[in-house]
Amino acid sequence: MEVDLCFVMDCTGSMKGYIEGAKNSIKEVAEYMAKMEPAIKIRVGFCGYRDHHDTNRLQIFDFTNSCDEFKNNLSNVPATGGGGDGPEDVLGGLNAAVHMSWQNPIRVLLHIGDFPPHGRRYNNAADDYPDGDPNGLTAECVLEEMRSVGIHYFFVKITNETATMIRIFQGIIGEYPVFDFETAKPEDLVKKFFEAACSAITTAISLRE
């Protein structure tokens, strides 16, 4: 079986530990999947997002079948930016990921973030873009395109700030697994990422059978 696995991650300042966790777990994921019968071949990709006013708003590394190349790419991803408000360019990151070079029949997108997109529908806190994404993206258009090209969406929940986003997204594309990292200790992140990625892949495979 051939799998495309894409990590879509908030890369603002608060996410440093999670970037390291993803980087250090992906090789273990690939090696574990390769030992399964039948063997599972994985290409891995990455789309990091920050906020609209940030330098390097999006950092994209297209799919590769080299775990070492993937880890080297992530070594060039700083956790920086984000500004004074909570919401980030979530929709921009997801939209960019949808347009990466997906090609394998099993497509898994694992999204990791601690804040929702911009817009009053997601939160009542301070928001530099209360009317929503300044580029006109909506959750409906992004998620429906994601579904139309066969990408399975999974979310890693880090804070309760994303609870409303999860509910809205599920209202658009239906129920999907949410991995709860809220109480994860830094030393447990590699294990948690490994478990989440393997679970997402096996779930996506079972949905095709």
Question: TL;DR?
Answer:
The chain has 209 residues and is an alpha/beta fold.
- The number of helical elements comes to 6
C-alpha end-to-end distance: 12 Å
Radius of gyration, in Å, reads 16 Å
Query: What would you say the CATH architecture is?
Result: 3-Layer(aba) Sandwich
Explain this structure.
By secondary structure, the protein is α/β, with parallel strands linked by helices. The protein has a single domain (2-208), classed as Rossmann fold. It has helices at 16-34, 67-74, 90-98, 139-148, 163-173, 189-208; strands at residues 2-10, 41-49, 58-64, 106-113, 151-157, 178-180. A 6-stranded mixed β-sheet has the order 3-2-1-4-5-6, sandwiched between helices. Helix 4 (139-148) links the parallel strand 4 (106-113) and strand 5 (151-157). Helix 1 (16-34) runs antiparallel to helix 2 (67-74) and helix 3 (90-98) packs parallel to helix 4. The longest helix is centred in the last third of the chain and has 20 residues, at 189-208. The radius of gyration is 16 Å and the shape is globular. Residues 4-197 form the VWFA domain. Keywords: Secreted, Signal. Its main location: secreted. InterPro entries: HMCN1-like_VWA, Thr-specific_kinase-like, VWF_A, vWFA_dom_sf.
